[in-house]
Amino acid sequence: MNAMRHAISLFSLGSFQLGRRMRSQHLRGFLLGTGLGLCSFATVTYAQAEAAKVNRRLNVSKFMAEPITEATVLLEDKENMRHRMELMIMEIQAEFCRALESEEFNGQKFKVDRWMRKEGGGGVTCVLQDGDVFEKAGVNVSVVTGSLPPAAVQQMRARGKALTENVKLPFFASGVSAVIHPRNPHVPTIHFNYRYFEVELPDGEKQWWFGGGTDLTPYYLDETDARHFHKTLKSACDEHDATYYPRFKKWCDDYFHIKHRNESRGIGGIFFDDIDVPTQDSAFNFITSCARAVIPSYMPLVQKHKNDAYGNNERQWQLLRRGRYVEFNLIYDRGTKFGLYTPGARYESILMSLPLNARWEYMHEPQPKSKESALLTVLRNPKEWI
After folding, report:
1. Which CATH number is 180's domain given?
2. How far apart are CA 198 and CA 315, in angstroms?
3. Can you tell me the distance from the alpha carbon of 327 to that of 325, in angstroms, rounded to the nearest whole number?
4. Using one digit for the tens of pLDDT, what is the confidence trace for 15-28?
5. Are residues 251 and 342 in the same domain?
6. Which domain holds residue 27?
7. In the chain, % of residues over pLDDT 90
8. What is the pLDDT of residues 323-332, one digit of tens each?
9. Is 86 in the same domain as 195?
10. Which residues are catalytic?
């Protein structure tokens, strides 16, 4: 009998030690033996706790920098639209930056500048300058809070927002924006911006809406490229509402019109603002689809044209068209104006959309029946591409 008790004791001790070794190596299983129920329960509980920790971790290595909001806060309430938007735009920024970097010939990388704003929030600005393929590329994320300045309130009221003047209106704004100025004149410039906005009214009610768009500015017209670009954006829109693309294409043509030149900045794309229907979730899913359409709409054009031959005439035309780009951004663009009006604005990030080089010539007109003239005809008479 004593021998049997001794054998059972040795078996139980051996099982317990085995359990400890398995637990230390993060192995999970059943532990068999007399009196080991408590040890088994502890092992399963430990496994569950470790799994929960893993689920709570945010893999920030997939971003260009740490998010503006603390990772633990972002993961505590995944259903909060502020948090969902921040995670989405951080992903879009990183995916687009890495796609652009992969096209450079000599491994040029983005300079990453994470910044904070004393009034609330901050951003991550990524800029690549003097690359072989991209002369200047900027991809910016901002997540900011504060009180709306009077000029911004007036601008929003002019768009139909029911905002009271001369009172404190706390706001939250987050978005991703990019402008890519390539070196080769046969590669078009692309711009996109997707954003989410909240304003708290004096009675505590919140107004929210989404806005954004993607548009293309070629220096030489390639109709195949134009159709590919518009078709890709239309597919993203059609996933959600078949009326979106025609509505937002026209909105884009109207918005990116340089009035004093009587010409468009480019060949359009989609543009929309104040989207707050049918639900917050569906609106978020729509702009996510649009943001994810940027890479397939644009990168094939870069790959197609980045090695095209060009000379000084093409370069000078490119610089003239970039001058038009500057005129629109500084005179008409609402996003630029809102940024400049906002207290604590970070001007380097706001003005990252401007090209590294641009040119103005007095009373310049391209030669009739030239490739430059063909582009100008389309810019003065926007057309349907699909």
Report:
1. 3.40.1500.10
2. 43
3. 5
4. 444 444 444 444 33
5. yes
6. 2-56
7. 73
8. 999 999 999 9
9. yes
10. 191
